[in-house]
Design goal:
By secondary structure, this protein is α/β, with parallel strands linked by helices. Helices cover about 40% and strands about 15% of the residues. The strands form 2 sheets. Strands 3-2-1-4-9-6-10 form a 7-stranded mixed beta sheet, with helices on both faces. The protein has a 4-stranded mixed beta sheet with strand order 5-11-7-8. Helix 6 runs parallel beside helix 7, helix 7 runs antiparallel to helix 8 and helix 8 packs antiparallel against helix 9. The chain starts with a strand and ends in a 17-residue tail after the last helix.
């Protein structure tokens, strides 16, 4: 029986893939499998993964005939996974030796649906610990209780799929797949769904996953149109939260977070190509007008003056053709 399936998408990361694969070897166990998904790489990544099939116990390679993005690659891995527990890793990150064995042992002891973990962020030679924004650790809790308060960073604002472990029953309930085709912010609807619909979770103060940030080929560093998928992602968060039984309580958090992400992109708009920057403004304006307006007004009233002014001005901006189309969500 496979105890743990680790899903690792790769796309044009030949510089970093060897580090990732060495760390998987240092985590191998006879009841672990590593599902490596080559998302139609055009560099030497495919050759590196072919060698890994022969060199690392438990490796299974799946290849896409066309690039589908991180969400689609993770779904390919989920469809192939056989493990009782599931984990994710990105193809340019790495693990401490024995990390998965310890994480699995502590998760099984708690018996909860999923756990969230801290991580080490690596940027060049700098390293810093990033912690799950949740105070209670090492005990099984109701994940719905970790969504609020709206005005503070909470567990749903720490969306990294690779920072945790997930029981197969979540997959069987349809809670672990990602929205197919999302190129960025693919983990936002996913983490919100887990917190709304899973029965139990826990936060573990365990360090062992190293997140490589600032990689030149990473989508977060590229200011092209794929970055705008965050709008489709957060539209989904708003839409699904509006259908929740506690919509009136949860929507303020979802709207406030969406506004924060829009403001973040507007504050660094110079990194986008000019045509993409114009589209960002128009699509963001349309997104603001789609939000439940009273909830949005309340959120804007609670923000600092600079952020509120930018967002109010943006909401008044005329939307370009094609920027609208999603219906406004009403609070339940």
């Amino acid at each position: 029986m496979v105890k743990l399936s680790v899903i690792v998408p790769f796309y044009n990361v030949q510089t970093y893939a060897p580090d990732t694969l060495r760390s998987l070897r240092a985590n191998a166990r006879e009841d672990f499998e590593f599902i490596l998904v080559d998302d139609c790489s055009t560099d030497g990544t495919a050759d590196i993964l072919r060698r890994a099939e022969d060199e690392i116990p438990g490796v299974v390679v799946r290849r896409h005939k066309q690039n589908g993005g991180l969400a689609t690659a993770r779904n390919t891995g989920l469809d192939a996974a056989r493990g009782e527990y599931l984990a994710f890793l990105d193809g340019d990150d790495w693990l401490a030796p024995g990390y998965y064995a310890e994480l699995l042992s502590r998760t099984e002891a708690l018996g909860c649906d999923f756990v969230r973990t801290d991580h080490v962020q690596v940027e060049g030679r700098n390293r810093g610990v990033h912690r799950v924004p949740h105070g209670r650790r090492g005990e099984a809790l109701d994940p719905r209780d970790a969504i609020l308060p709206a005005e503070r960073s909470t567990s749903v604002d720490y969306p990294y799929a690779w920072a945790g472990l997930y029981h197969r029953r979540l997959l069987d309930r349809g809670l672990l797949h990602f929205t197919d085709g999302l190129r960025t912010a693919e983990d936002r609807p996913w983490i919100w769904r887990l917190h709304r619909e899973a029965d139990s979770f826990a936060v573990l103060g365990i360090l062992g996953i190293f997140y490589r940030r600032g990689v030149a080929s990473s989508l977060t560093q590229i200011g092209d149109v794929r970055q705008l998928d965050f709008i489709r992602s957060f539209d989904q968060v708003i839409r699904e939260t509006a259908e929740d039984r506690d919509a009136q309580v949860l929507l303020p958090k979802a709207v406030r977070t969406y506004c924060a992400i829009i403001f973040h992109h507007m504050s660094s708009i110079e990194r986008f190509e000019p045509a993409v920057a114009r589209t960002l403004k128009s699509m963001s304006a349309a997104a603001l007008r789609r939000m439940p307006q009273q909830v949005l007004d309340d959120a804007l009233d609670s923000m600092d003056a600079q952020r509120a002014t930018v967002l109010r001005r943006l909401r008044r901006r005329p939307a370009a053709a094609g920027a609208t189309g999603a219906r406004e969500v009403s609070a339940a």
